[in-house]
Every structure is written in structure tokens, then in C-alpha cells.
Amino acid sequence: MKIDFELRKWDREFADDLAIHANNKNIAANLRDAFPHPYTKKDAKDYIAHCIANEGRTQICRAIYVNDEAVGSVGIFVGEDVYRKSAEIGYWLSEKYWDRGIMSQAVKSICEKAFERFDIVRIYAEPFYDNTPSRKVLDNAGFSLEGVMMNGVYKNDQIKDYCMYALIR
């Protein structure tokens, strides 16, 4: 069942929603350690402040807004040095809204904005190999699997494989 959503610029008023929806072990398990669990209101405020401070300069971050709540995030982060023509995408969504087509559409939309805003030629993502739903999001958004990095990450006391996906301008 499809659900209507909006991508909105992050606002400090979203901190309560963010702290509630991000505080989920199932979400944190598939993200880098920089995404904490438990996820506190302070974490939410810090993240939102970072999004606001860097908006449009080195990144585009949007709240995924459904039914008057911020229920997820999607962001593009431009690289530095020899990676300055590339950007990484990161995203997560409240478990309550998984499997509804929201994230694939959000990823497509923010990638279009990033290619318009930044002088980049490539957007990449590095989901864990066993994160099939995230990989499906990227497939649905037009990304190509470039390879699998064997034993490339360490998460929750396990060495895991991760994938390299990219969308080329």
C-alpha cells in the first residue's frame, strides 16, 4: 500500500519525531556505528543542527514526512579531495513505514536534486550485503551494483560484506 510523503528540510521542531522513530535497534543494525542505539533526543538535536548548518554547501538532507511526522531521513553528502565529484547517499525509515515504496521514491527525488545542485558525476551507497531491503531500494531507484566488498565492515561483533552501488549522472 503506497503512502503519500514529503521531503522537507530539517527543522528543529522535528527533534521529538526523530528521537522516537530513529530509536530502533532494527534500523541501527543496518547503519554505520555513527547512528547510535539507543537514539536520544540529544542525538536528534545534534543531527538536525548538522543538517541545517551544512544545507546546500556540502550536503542535502531531508526529513521524510508522513502523516504530520518526520519518520525518516535521506541525505546526499559530497566527497572531498579526489572524491569531490562523487557523493554518498544515506537513508533510513521508521520500521512502521517499511515496504510501502516510500524510500525508493525519496532516493530518486533527492538524487535528482543533488545532480542539479552539485557538480558531481556519481552518487554511491554502501549497504551491508545482507540488507536486502536497502539493496532493493537502490535497485528500484536506478542504482547499479558495482561490486561486493568481502569482509569490508565490522558491525555488532561481526565481520560482514558490503556492497558498492552507484548512480551515474
Characterise this structure.
The chain has 169 residues and is an alpha+beta fold. It has a domain at 6-120: Aminopeptidase. Helices cover 30% and strands 34% of the residues. The protein has a 7-stranded mixed β-sheet, with helices on both faces. Strand 2 and strand 3 (69-78) form a beta hairpin. The mean pLDDT is 95.
Short account of what is shown:
The chain has helices at residues 15-22, 25-28, 41-54, 102-117, 132-140; strands at residues 6-9, 59-66, 69-78, 86-93, 122-125, 144-155, 158-168. The chain is an alpha+beta fold.
Radius of gyration: 15 Å
How helical, in percent, are the residues? 25-40%
The SS-based structural class is alpha+beta
CATH fold-type name of the domain at 6-120: Aminopeptidase
What distance lies between the first and last C-alpha atoms, to the nearest angstrom?
A: 31 Å
**Spans with pLDDT under 50 lasting ≥5 residues?**
none
Strand content: 25-35%
Q: Which sequence of strands runs across the widest sheet? A: 1-2-3-4-5-7-6
The main pleated sheet reads as:
7 strands, mixed
CATH class of the domain at 6-120: Alpha Beta
Shape: globular
CATH superfamily membership of the domain at 6-120, which one? Gcn5-related N-acetyltransferase (GNAT)
Q: Enumerate how many helices there are, as a single number.
A: 5
Element-level helix/strand string = EHHHEEEHEHEE
Mean pLDDT: 95
